[in-house]
Amino acid sequence: MSDHPLDPSTLLNGKDLRLTLHANLKPASGLDRFQPAGFPEIGHVIYDAPRPDNSVQKVCIVDSAASMANHLETVCLASEHSLDLADELTGMPYVECRTDDGWPNVTKDTTGPKRLVVTTLSEGHRLASTYFLGEERPGSRTGLLVEDGQTTDRKFRVTLRNEFGIADLGKKSHPLPHQWWTVFTTIFRYDPNSLVHGVLFPAMGIKLPRMLTAHLEAFGASRVRSSGVKFDRLGKTSSGQPIFSLDEETASKIVATFIIDLALLRSFGRGNHGLNDSQKEFLLSFALWKIERILRGPFRYRSNCDLELDELRIRGREEPLALPAIDIKSVVGKAGFGDSPVTQVDWPANELFRAGADEQEEGSDSDDEQDAQE
Q: For residue 298, is the peptide bond before it cis, meaning its omega torsion is within 30 degrees of 0?
């Protein structure tokens, strides 16, 4: 796609500091209402945005940068209800947290933990999540590396710190200037997705901002209030027959904005230090593939927020743009990830799950009837 305005190689070797894409979206199926993100007692966020002509426009935040990052990671999975990697990304590194089968009647499997809990593509803190780093309290056997199906005695947290080249200074430490190159290459080797969406290791003094930032907004927004009712025909719940409020929105324009920090991407390597050009080109291709995947759809941001692409533009250009066609499978193959890209860590089931604190119901016949909660 070398003649496409979004050709990764051309962008990487250009002089632009950032790439900003605006995707005009519209509700699918000819509808005019949609549901933004919102929370109980807070609802949807609508604010007055000043315009150059001194007017004010109502703008609704449909999805924040954090929410859009979650959506952009979801497209990397085989399906909405699976933690398996999408087929096109086979060979790309990521980290899995696994635990024992059979909770609460756990029997240790001699071939290692089998039950998949989360991955760095599904967990909000990505590579820096406690699910992978484990707990630091003395005696904890959480976050131990799994190799050849066997749980080792090595903490993934310690392995990462050592490979970063950062000295263990107790509760706080930080990389020296020359060690950042190793930080970039180590994160790339274990989970390049963390370089795309940012990662924070507070105790190691590592904070990398988002290379790809996205947010979804509706302009000229107007709130649509409606209601619903829950019917309890058998009378078996305590809620009765409540009437609840339901808020949706209409808007004159819905825009998803994607910003790729090209300057940050270039800073991940220079000369023989840090990431090489092929690795940086993978990160850029991966970011563009995520954008293409979420816009080509169908993709639902939530139940009543089914949006489809109307038009895509590069900021500052008038002409519409076709979606890029990224051959991500080929790009993964060229990135040199090796034969064992998936890292597994073990979190014992008795550490991961906790027995319910509620007392047994009166008249229970078994002392073993307890609810398990995560």
A: yes
pLDDT-based confidence at 363, cuts 50/70/90?
A: very low
Q: Across-strand partners of 216?
A: 63, 256
Burial per residue of 182-209, b for 16 or more beta-carbon CB atoms within 10 angstroms, e otherwise: bbbbbbbbbbbbbbbbbbebebbebebe
For residue 185, the model assigns a pLDDT of 97
Distance CA 253, CA 3 (A): 30
Q: Does 43 reside within a domain?
A: yes
* CA 372 to each of CA 1, 135, 357: distance values in angstroms, whole numbers, following the listed order: 52, 20, 9
- Judge whether 37 lies within some domain: yes
Domain assignment present for residue 283? The answer is yes
Q: pLDDT digit string (tens) for 38-95?
A: 877 778 899 999 999 999 999 999 999 999 999 999 999 998 889 999 999 999 999 9
- Does any domain span residue 258? yes
CB within 8 A of 205, min separation 6: which ones? 166, 172, 173, 174, 175
CA dist 25 and 6 (Å) reads: 20
CB neighbours of residue 372 within 10 Å? 12
d(CA 347, CA 223): 45
Q: Which residue has the tokens 């509760």?
A: 171
- Report the pLDDT value the prediction gives residue 171, as an integer from 0 to 100: 66
Q: What does the alpha-carbon distance between residue 329 and residue 322 come to, in Å, rounded to a whole number? A: 20
Q: Please return the burial class of 303, using the count of CB atoms within 10 Å of its CB with bins 0-12, 13-18 and 19+.
A: exposed
- Domain carrying residue 83: 8-334
With vertex at residue 346, the alpha carbon angle to CA 343 and CA 347, rounded to the nearest 5 degrees, is 140
- How many domains, the chain? 1
For residue 2, is pLDDT > 80? Answer: no
Closest CA to 367 of 104, 87, 37, 20: 104
User: What is the DSSP secondary-structure string of 175-237?
Assistant: --GGGHHHHHHHHHHH-THHHHH-EEEGGGTEEE--SEEEEEEEES-EEEEEEEE---TT--S
How far, in Å, CA of 228 to CA of 272, rounded?
Answer: 62
How large is the average pLDDT for residues 337-365? 71
Contact by Cβ (8 Å): 44, 64: no
